[in-house]
């Protein structure tokens, strides 16, 4: 199969520093969409993956899985998109299409899913992400960016946003007047989680390790309550008050104190990836019929649904736009939690060479 050369930025090893990099992508196949990359969100998983902290990283690695672009070419069998459309790609670019997960619109759980980067495509080549000038993706794994949604605003929704949106939909209980939601961690996923939960009508409590983000949570993002996890008295008063907790923390942290916040049959939903195992006391679950569950990104259907929901509710992502030559510093700041709340790279406006 013929290929075309593109430019981007890649990690060459686990030092978490990325450099300019030139590589090839396939030419547009019958069901492919080829697009010029405009923007790409920066996710904590990118840093874990660059450092070889999760899965096994194959270098050189071009990160980026919150990718927004403009279509420049479509295959002869493509009927969903046309040249000039604004499109998005999230965490996966392929799956088997035949398993129960794929047939249930949960292709992100397919055992043969193809990750947007650090995966192996069906042609045997390593997949590379959105820190690049262009991408080519099968139309099934591409979503349409609504006309009323700015492309840079859409980028964080393609992973962080749908990671929160997917499980939250499941936690809406039929006939229940108010769902009491806890958001643990107020970073890239957490801040979007607060906004989505509020737009769904949930009563939202932000749980944080310090008081630093209280004003942001309550006044800027519209949370209903703020809880400091290091304050034992506050935590004790809030026991048995939450229907679910969306755990967005991408680091090692204790779970027992958060489990105590749940009502009977409450759930902690893990969406933040810890590079090391977490521990908890099983009594905390057993005595309240509570559970710990996980959720991976969102389906293509849920991603499109979230984009439309975002426009319908008039929501706005809190982002800081940077150029590609700032990305190493952006990773350092992200690790220090020094961003409100998501970096988005202006790929098209960057010098990639």
UniProtKB/TrEMBL annotation:
Where does the Enoyl reductase (ER) domain start and stop, copy by copy? 14-345
- Identify the Gene3D superfamilies for this entry: Medium-chain alcohol dehydrogenases, catalytic domain, NAD(P)-binding Rossmann-like Domain
Q: Which Pfam families match?
A: ADH_N (PF08240), ADH_zinc_N (PF00107)
Cofactor(s) the protein requires to work = Zn(2+)
The text of the family note is:
Belongs to the zinc-containing alcohol dehydrogenase family.
Coiled-coil region list: none
- Recorded GO MF terms: oxidoreductase activity, acting on the CH-OH group of donors, NAD or NADP as acceptor; zinc ion binding
Identification of the protein by name: Enoyl reductase (ER) domain-containing protein
Q: Which UniProt keywords apply?
A: Metal-binding, Oxidoreductase, Zinc
Q: Which InterPro entries match?
A: ADH-like_C, ADH-like_N, ADH_Zn_CS, CAD-like, ER, GroES-like_sf, NAD(P)-bd_dom_sf
Q: Which SUPFAM superfamilies match?
A: GroES-like, NAD(P)-binding Rossmann-fold domains
In terms of domain of life, where is this protein from? Eukaryota
Species annotation:
Stephania yunnanensis
